[in-house]
Amino acid sequence: MSERVCIGAVAGAFGVRGELRLKSFTAEPTDVATYGPVETEDGAQNFTITLTGQATKGALIARLSGIATKEQADALKGARLYVARDRLPALPDDEYYHADLIGLEVFDTGGTSLGRVKSVQNHGASDLLEIHGPGLKSTVLLPFTLDAVPTVDIAGGRIIADPPEGLF
Question: What domains lie within the chain, and their CATH numbers?
Answer without folding.
Answer: 4-87 (2.40.30.60), 98-161 (2.30.30.240)
